[in-house]
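User: Design a sequence. Structure:
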């Protein structure tokens, strides 16, 4: 049985309809009104091997902030819904992904015990945070990740070890997140019940 979720998040600032299938084929249909963000979400689906459909309409005349953050929130909610009781999953995922001169290490621990924590480190972040890429300000990466972390109720550690080109830095983050999610969500036939000594996640 495929693990999937359908999320509808409509506020005064954004209207987001998102569908996620964890056990997918990496297919994506993404429309956020932000070209670079569309690209990042498409490669997130591709490299996590999830199927992802997103239609987002936000107040882009004000800023891209609300749209980016709310998509992160909706995506986190979708993973929680699709994973269900989390029985049999690996729970932890990690990845180290190169992108030309950039090397991003993304360590993800999916721990659904109501302890959402996001830790983000990147050398030279202040120098690239205000760079705009296809309508997407680089600093919004943190807002997306924080929104995702809060709603997915997971630990998310993102460490960019080095990198100069803003496009490469952001792409390495999204790709490493994708691979870490893929690993964490996989079913492990050796795991019986919940992957926790507490007996609850």
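Assistant: Done.
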């Amino acid at each position: 049985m495929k693990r999937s979720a359908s999320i509808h998040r409509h506020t005064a600032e954004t209207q987001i309809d998102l569908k996620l299938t964890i056990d997918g084929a990496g297919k994506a249909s993404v429309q956020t009104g932000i070209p670079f963000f569309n690209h990042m979400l498409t490669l997130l689906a591709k490299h996590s091997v999830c199927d992802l459909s997103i239609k987002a309409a936000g107040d882009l005349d004000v800023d891209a902030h609300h749209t980016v953050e709310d998509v992160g929130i909706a995506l986190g909610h979708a993973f929680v819904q699709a994973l269900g009781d989390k029985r049999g999953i690996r729970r932890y995922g990690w990845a180290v992904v190169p992108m030309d001169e950039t090397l991003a290490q993304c360590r993800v621990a999916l721990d659904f015990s109501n302890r959402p924590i996001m830790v983000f480190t990147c050398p030279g972040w202040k120098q690239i945070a205000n760079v705009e890429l296809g309508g997407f300000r680089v600093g919004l990466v943190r807002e997306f990740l924080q929104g995702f972390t809060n709603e997915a109720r997971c630990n998310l550690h993102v460490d960019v070890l080095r990198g100069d080109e803003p496009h490469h830095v952001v792409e390495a983050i999204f790709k490493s997140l994708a691979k870490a999610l893929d690993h964490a969500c996989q079913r492990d036939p050796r795991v019986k019940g919940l992957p926790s000594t507490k007996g609850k996640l």
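The beta strands are 4-10, 14-21, 28-31, 51-58, 92-99, 102-109, 117-121, 132-133, 136-137, 155-162. DSSP finds five helices and ten strands in the chain.
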